[in-house]
Amino acid sequence: MADTCAMFSDDDLAATHVPAGAVGARPEFTDPLWRVRVRLNPVESALLRTEPLRRLHFVVHGGASALTTLQSYSRLEHTLGVLALVAHFRPTDAALRVAALLHDVGHLPLSHTFEGLAGLDHHAIGLRLLDGDPIRPVLAEHGIRPDAVTAALAEHPPAGLLSLDHLDSFVRSGRSGGWLETDPAALLRRLTLVGHAVSADAREDAAALVALVCAEARLHTSWNSVGPSAVVRGLAGRLLADSPVTPEQLARMTDHQFWSALDACAATRAETARLHYEPHRLRVTPEPGGGFALRKLYRSAPLLERRPLDESAPELSAELGALDGLPLEFRVSWSG
To answer: Where is the HD/PDEase domain (predicted)?
Structure first.
């Protein structure tokens, strides 16, 4: 079979924006959120055709909140968004571009929803995948050292500062949630990268980013997220206890496979159906020691004019500090 890429000429690509491609079949795509045109390197196209990257197309970024909201975009969409941001700011950094593609390959079904259960850690899983088939041979074939990618994956801005990974998450979530009030492409032109931290050129842009961070934190502590997340975490624990599924098998399922496993298990089938069709019956109450606790809230701050917010805009820093008052422990139950 002829290579699909041969079906398209450079003239074709120059003539129109190419929709974001999830399989690397064309050597260029336009990210739909940032409207950045990305010309894929050969190694990037090859990686997009591997099982670990393909799997991310079937894992929702928003986790269990996809059941009660329209936060239904995939981990792969976010991954391609991070690649677009790296291609915008650091287009020639081959290792960082590959790291952008591979940074989420270890995610569990429904992303963070039952992270930590049975010791499962998506960072550790991702590093193991990077060092094995089929990713390591693809990197070797294209002259990319795995240790260079591992080093790039470990590079983060100082604690509390906004990274490209979180920038894409907050803006993409804001679009899906309806609280994004600025044009992402226009915003991107007014951002710079200082080391690995995102810096806004103007106070209004820093304020827009802070508003997105705060909206995301409030989503994570809302009924829409806490209720289904608590139930799914309980269902995953029961699946491991009452079925032959092992933690390792669970970790590599897609969302579809996870739901199918829950449907097939007598101990989880009934509540799974209830979660799908009667989530409105969930009751969520903030309560210390209530049985469900959020692991953490992301409150990454942008720089403003290359300076920390507590120096350049202390009122914006205070808005992020106010997130400490949000509840992290809840009681979740069914009514009726």
So the answer is: 71-228
